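Q: A small favour: would you put together sequence and structure tokens for a protein?
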Amino acid sequence: MLSTFGWEVVSATPEPDPTDIPPRELAKVTLKCSPTPFVTLECDVLNNSDWSLSEITLTVRILNKNGTEARRYKYEMAPGSRLHFDPGGSTKGLVQLDSSLDPGQTLDWMVDGAKGVGSP
């Protein structure tokens, strides 16, 4: 609305709250991750879903040399330089890990869930 003070916002539509995305859409989200020397997991996220994702939940396992699980953690990853992992886009995400690896240990990870805005 134009007033004597200039243009003023009369009302704005708030963004909807993020919700869990359905499994069929989650299956369209792929990650290519690699650990850095700074106890961080750096991921390229390709979001082929129709949802704009605000966070992705990862399960990260630390495996011993013989393949047994030493520790398991859950992390929520947010986009590195944007507000969302946009549909059809590729975005970097970072996860600061709680633990460093002992000699001979490796990391294993999987997408456990995601929240975002889209059509159910």
Q: What stands out?
A: The first strand starts at residue 2 and ends at 3. The beta strands are 2-3, 6-7, 19-20, 29-35, 40-47, 52-63, 69-77, 89-96, 106-117. The first helix runs from residue 23 to 26.
